[in-house]
């Protein structure tokens, strides 16, 4: 299951065609649904079911968005979609609400995969209910693959013309601000360490979307946005893995994920 999900994530990051992107996403998602419920205890089964149901809705939303974009452009290759949009006037594009709706649905579908607010409902229960090594894998690998495919899709297909990139850049800017606020505020009162890191992961998605929001504003912002996103993503992966390794080491001795039980562990 880990190999299948990793294969799907690698395909997500490498492909430049809508149908292939969807297949790679589903290969990843189905493997993760099973992996989350692997222990078959009540907590992991509940987390797996919630993840499956919400993930199915997100997949349907994403597929509908892709269908709208294909219906408007007649293309599934990201580069060809960009060529069609560049050849059209802003008035012609804005006169086709199907395209705008398709882009919004793509944001919603991908937003679920990266745990962006308000598509984050699955994160706390899944992080709390599954074994810590699987939580670490989910928090790092799936988020990295999700941001890789978002950057590829929106930069390759919708990066030009610039006025269009400003439209979806504004969406990511709003989601970023909401995510940073909601994730950090709700993380404060948590009593379960894995649940707290789940909300922290939501906040980190907000920080990462700042880089996405910058892409398309100007040539300089393109470079800074992409490079800062990739740098922060690498730093997030290392820091998060370190945090979960510490949790695994301590929780194996304590047999508890409650923050209060971690008191005095450094003595």
Automatic annotation (TrEMBL):
<keyword id="KW-1133">Transmembrane helix</keyword>
<dbReference type="Pfam" id="PF00361">
    <property type="entry name" value="Proton_antipo_M"/>
</dbReference>
<feature type="transmembrane region" description="Helical">
    <location>
        <begin position="229"/>
        <end position="250"/>
    </location>
</feature>
<feature type="transmembrane region" description="Helical">
    <location>
        <begin position="51"/>
        <end position="72"/>
    </location>
</feature>
<feature type="transmembrane region" description="Helical">
    <location>
        <begin position="20"/>
        <end position="39"/>
    </location>
</feature>
<feature type="transmembrane region" description="Helical">
    <location>
        <begin position="92"/>
        <end position="115"/>
    </location>
</feature>
<keyword id="KW-0472">Membrane</keyword>
<feature type="transmembrane region" description="Helical">
    <location>
        <begin position="170"/>
        <end position="189"/>
    </location>
</feature>
<keyword id="KW-0812">Transmembrane</keyword>
<feature type="domain" description="NADH:quinone oxidoreductase/Mrp antiporter transmembrane">
    <location>
        <begin position="17"/>
        <end position="264"/>
    </location>
</feature>
<dbReference type="InterPro" id="IPR001750">
    <property type="entry name" value="ND/Mrp_TM"/>
</dbReference>
<feature type="transmembrane region" description="Helical">
    <location>
        <begin position="196"/>
        <end position="217"/>
    </location>
</feature>
<dbReference type="GO" id="GO:0016020">
    <property type="term" value="C:membrane"/>
</dbReference>
<protein>
    <recommendedName>
        <fullName>NADH:quinone oxidoreductase/Mrp antiporter transmembrane domain-containing protein</fullName>
    </recommendedName>
</protein>
<feature type="transmembrane region" description="Helical">
    <location>
        <begin position="136"/>
        <end position="158"/>
    </location>
</feature>
């Amino acid at each position: 299951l880990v190999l299948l999900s990793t294969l799907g994530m690698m395909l997500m990051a490498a492909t430049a065609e809508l149908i292939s992107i969807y297949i790679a996403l589903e290969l990843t998602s189905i493997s993760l649904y099973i992996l989350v419920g692997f222990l078959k205890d009540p907590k992991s089964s509940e987390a797996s079911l919630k993840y499956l149901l919400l993930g199915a809705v997100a997949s349907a939303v994403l597929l509908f968005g892709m269908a709208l974009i294909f219906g408007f452009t007649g293309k599934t290759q990201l580069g060809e979609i960009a060529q069609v949009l560049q050849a059209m006037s802003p008035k012609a594009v804005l006169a086709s609400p199907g395209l705008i709706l398709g882009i919004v649905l793509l944001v919603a579908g991908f937003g679920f995969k990266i745990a962006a607010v308000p598509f984050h409902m699955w994160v706390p229960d899944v992080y709390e209910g599954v074994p810590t090594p699987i939580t670490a894998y989910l928090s790092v690998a799936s988020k990295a693959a999700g941001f890789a495919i978002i950057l590829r899709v929106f930069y390759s297909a919708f990066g030009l013309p610039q006025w269009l990139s400003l439209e979806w850049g504004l969406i990511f800017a709003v989601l970023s601000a909401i995510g940073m606020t909601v994730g950090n505020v709700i993380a404060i009162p948590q009593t379960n360490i894995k649940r707290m890191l789940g909300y922290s992961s939501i906040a980190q998605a907000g920080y990462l979307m700042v880089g996405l929001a910058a892409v398309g504003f100007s040539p300089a912002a393109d470079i800074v946005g992409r490079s800062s996103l990739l740098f922060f993503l690498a730093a997030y992966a290392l820091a998060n893995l370190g945090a979960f390794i510490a949790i695994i080491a301590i929780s194996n001795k304590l047999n508890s994920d409650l923050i209060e039980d971690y008191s005095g562990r450094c003595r």
